[in-house]
Design a protein that fits this description.
The chain is mostly beta strands. About 15% of the residues lie in helices and about 35% in strands. A hairpin with a 2-residue loop joins β22 and β23. The radius of gyration is 21 Å and the shape is globular.
């Protein structure tokens, strides 16, 4: 019996190890990133290590803030998937969200692989750069969710906040065009006291761009939603241009982002969804918002958003 139990423990340990493959381990000889220089020689996975990766897989990097670096106001690091080695492609979005919440203790950060990231990682591997960050370890975990993430521009498991927890850079939106549909796949959460719908704003073009809101009739445009499924809306020509220029920021609460897409046709979730806002009428609004997407008084001062445009008073 004892031998059987030991065998079971050994088998479980083997399965656990196989589920998470160590790509880089610099424990005791950590790599400090200073000045956004490439780390392909010091903290990178090779193309050979990436050959079996697939869309939806997770790259986890263990990192912390570099307290000795006083030149960087916002310590962070970014994932890079290379076509033929450093630095063929540099983008904050090839591997998902950057590590913008670094603390003084080593903390794991997850980067979810899109089609684009997988394709290029297989050609030239994965590297990281940044400033004010210290990297210790990189692992790869195969996706076992059963979700088909094909075509996703961004993949994550990111809880929405009013600080803008879900974002994707302009590189993700090269195919954005008038008439296409923006879709954000979500998990809707049960939050006491929250609105019974996903609560938040989507900023086409980042802060100061065109705001799409679910609950405020004074927003520039409204989105549709299907409970526990997705948020979506159709792109105008200006929205598409803004996405190409500066990407998107999504904020709010009561939901977690799973994936982001640009669709040729309206998403179908077994119904038309619920239109939270009369988009045609809301385009005529004169409401004023701050850069956090919160409505403010019409006579407020500072850098503000009105009719989707940034104004300064």
């Amino acid at each position: 019996m004892k031998k059987t139990l030991l065998s079971m423990v050994a088998l479980f340990a083997a399965v656990t190890v196989n589920a998470q493959v160590v790509l880089v381990d610099k424990t005791g000889a950590e790599v400090a990133l200073n000045g956004w220089s490439g780390t392909v020689e010091t903290f990178a996975a090779t193309a050979e290590q990436c050959k079996d990766m697939k869309t939806g897989d997770v790259i986890t990097v263990v990192a912390k803030r570099d307290a000795s670096n006083t030149t960087q106001g916002y310590p962070q690091f970014t994932g890079i998937a290379n076509t033929e080695g450093w630095p063929s492609i540099i983008s904050t979005q090839l591997l998902g969200m950057n590590g913008s919440n670094l603390v003084d203790e080593f903390t794991p950060f997850d980067f979810y692989l899109t089609d684009f990231a997988v394709e290029n990682a297989k050609k030239g591997g994965i590297a990281f750069n940044g400033d004010g960050a210290i990297l210790q370890k990189m692992t790869w975990t195969a996706d076992e969710s059963g979700i088909d993430f094909t075509g996703a521009l961004w993949i994550g498991n990111t809880k929405a906040t009013w600080g803008g927890a879900v974002s994707a850079g302009k590189d993700a939106f090269s195919d954005a065009a008038e008439g296409k549909w923006f879709e954000l796949a979500i998990i809707q959460e049960e939050v006491e006291g929250a609105l019974p719908v996903p609560n938040g704003n989507i900023h086409c073009g980042g802060w100061g761009g065109i705001m799409v809101s679910n609950y405020d009739k004074d927003a520039v445009c409204g989105f549709k939603y299907k409970e526990g499924k997705a948020i979506w809306f159709q792109l105008t020509a200006e929205m598409a241009t803004k996405l190409k220029e500066n990407g998107v920021v999504c904020q709010g609460d009561n939901w977690t982002g799973k994936a982001m897409y640009i669709r040729d046709t309206e998403p179908n979730f077994g119904g038309t969804g619920i239109t939270s806002v009369d988009a045609e009428n809301s385009m005529k609004t004169s409401a004023v918002y701050n850069l956090a997407g919160q409505r403010v008084a019409d006579n407020a001062k500072g850098i503000l958003i009105k009719n989707g445009k940034k104004i300064i008073r």
